[in-house]
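Re: the request from the purification team.
They wanted to know what the chain is likely to look like in 3D before they choose a buffer screen. I agreed to run a prediction and write the result into the notebook, where they can find it.
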Amino acid sequence: MSGKRVEWSRRRWLKSAAGLGALTLPALSNTVMAAPSTDTRTPVQLDQDWLAATKAYAPERRRLLDMTKQPSGPFRPDWQSLEAYKVPQWYADAKLGIFIHWGVFSVPAFGSEWYSRNMYVEGSPEFAHHVKTYGPQTRFGYKDFIPMFKAEHFAPDTWMDLFAAAGARYVVPVAEHHDGFSLYDSHLSDYTAVKMGPRRDLLGEIAKSARAKGLHFALSSHRAEHDWFFDEGRKFPSDVSDPKNAGLYGPAQSRLSGADDTDLFGDYTYVSQAWLDDWLARQVELVECYNPDLVYFDWWIGQPDFRNTLPSFLAWYYNRAAKTDGSAIVNYKLGEFAPGAGVLDIERGQAPGIRADVWQTCTSISDTSWGYIENDTYKSPEQLVHLLIDVVSKNGNLLLNIGPRADGHIPDAARDTFLRMGAWLKTNGEAIYGSRPWHVFGEGPTETANGTFAESRAKPYTAQDFRFTVNNGHLYALQMAWPDSGSATITSLGKDQPVKTMSLLGHEGLVAFHQDEKGLTFTPPPAAPRDLAYVYRIEI
């Protein structure tokens, strides 16, 4: 292997997430050392450049930090106290949210939302595309996309109408991605959508519209990873090494992640106290200014240096909500929080069974990217409804992502999928919203793709695959496909659980059935229209 550092996916470490499989730590002999950089400054010197570029905001940063140092409420800034956290009921009832990845990375619309990093990774498709399309990174860096991000067709009410029609109950825009460009009116940075590019408070407009349309407003912060996100730009001549750009590119510390870039246990990337303080101040600013019902964090807050800073934010956020009887939810990935201190999110994967605590899976409507890219492909409405059903039957929520175009348009194919899902939920929502798991989540021959980043292994469901929920005294059996044989059997409903009546949602009349030692065998109404899935209300 050459001296160039290998770029790994964080999937390998997370695939066995949430007790879904054994974790195998990488062998020391597999560790790949970073190649020497053309930028020879020390980590401390890089931090100083970044601090100098943002020194005008030091007083505001200190004010925000001081807010977290006077805890008042039921929670202390320690993990033992935070394990007493309880999830608000609205979230347990909501079941479906919309994630939004939108920003400067939507302009090149190539590869993925990680274009901002990968355009500096020599040998990557993004690097080659960038040089061919825009020129070398000394002449056209990521910063030069900012004026091209105009959001000229962004209409937040149109977005929220679509999300509500899709059946969503909460919306989670990314306030700042790893690229360090804020979509909100930050008083800690020059690089914001208010001061550059669109010159609009995009996050604020989404928040106002979401609440007006009856949706819970939440937000996502991916700031932690910005500590190192542009480090590849220091390995060859580029604009990343110019100190005058440090306000956008940050310290761009060398990533020292061992053999796997998600091996948080062995991650020795330099993280200064100044960076941790700035991270904390930015989270406080987001909550103070936009009052989100939920905050989503990406994976790198699990890096060990964050472990003593996270409780300060959590205690402050939870105590703030407790004073007003408001909502405060924090999504985290495997291993980042002490159990119970927030809500677990399993990225692009499912749980193997019913979890006692409410949890969430997040995935993108796109097969390959979270942000908008040209010529993308999307999951089908059937795939997404089946995923929602499986997740809900296991006490979870689905956070479904969309990547709008840079101009603010939502792609037509994604819009059509949202509306198809919403039509299904309009008929069958009583089995989803406000429901809880039955004593078994389901039955059938098809194994789910359990674990983080496992969705690529998902297989189509059959008519023998059922999921179960309960709501308002009713049992719901959700059948994943139409039985071509004309009948189907629910083996979990034997004679020891006598059924009184059975009906198909969206169809008038009762469904004929009989029970024996094999279970409940029924005949679906032949005239029923074919749909994404079929929901039977059962009286026991």
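For the purification team: The chain has two domains: 94-428, 436-539.
Please add any questions underneath this entry.
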